[in-house]
Amino acid sequence: MRKLTLNLLIITVLTATLSCKSDSKDAQEQFRERRQAILDRDENTPTATAEDPVATVGKAPAPTSDTPSKPATAAGDKVVGIKDGDTVVLLRNGQEVTVRLYGVDTPEKNQAFGQKAKEYTSNLAFGKNVRLIVNNTDRYGRTVGTIILPDGRSLNEELVRNGYAWHYKAYSNDKNLANAEADARRFKRGLWQDAKPVAPWDFRKEQRSGSSSSTASSTSNAPIPAGATKRTVYLCNSGGSSVYHLDSSCHVLKRCKEEVIKTTEAAAIREYGRRADKTCSR
């Protein structure tokens, strides 16, 4: 009986020992499987980087060359000169550009409201950054266009609306300018205070005809210098000028407030009744 009991005890111990070894082996195997699963998961999961949206939540993206910057405010063109009421000088890209206002014609400097028109343009635009809407280029090489003031108003329209310019209908059919002139006429603003205001183009024509008639007898038979029909000269298209210039850079010519006409010396003498300027003569 004792022997049987002892044998049973031995068998039980062996069984338990084997069972423990088996359980330990199973546990180790399960541990290895869990560890491998963790490693596999880490390998398949991308590491967060600066470009990873997850890594940058709550952070501003780093600027790159492709990131659009805040648009800069356009400064526009600066008005650096006022030649007369309807002609200004702009500074564009470091260069001066003469601009003749489109569709308007202000009185000449020796006409009523001529100086006031220049002062009005200066008060509205001089030294300010404006926007130029180009219309075309005239025969004198000037840019013809509309000047938009910093507050959005059109300088061209303001001149006409306040009676400092005529709507130049020979070169413009702009409805806004036509309405602005009708408004100025109605309320007798500016030059419309005069009973019979003379249009600038008519004034220039009278000045030219008056000058040519007074000198017709002396210029119709005036001697023409050799080569005058081919020689280019320059003259200021103003009633107050009686000379032509051989040099376009003459300082006298640069003071011209009107158009500078390029023509032949013969035409300057016979058609315009001009004589050679001695100030800058070569």
Automatic annotation (TrEMBL):
One Gene Ontology term of the molecular function aspect: hydrolase activity
Matches recorded under InterPro entries: SNase_OB-fold_sf, Staphylococal_nuclease_OB-fold, Thermonucl_AS
Keyword terms of this UniProt record: Endonuclease, Hydrolase, Nuclease
Chain segments carrying region Disordered: 37-76, 203-224
Keyword Hydrolase recorded: yes
Keyword Hydrolase (UniProt): yes
Coiled-coil stretches noted in the UniProt entry, renumbered to this chain: none
Protein name: SNase-like nuclease
Species of origin: Pontibacter korlensis
Lineage of the organism: Bacteria, Pseudomonadati, Bacteroidota, Cytophagia, Cytophagales
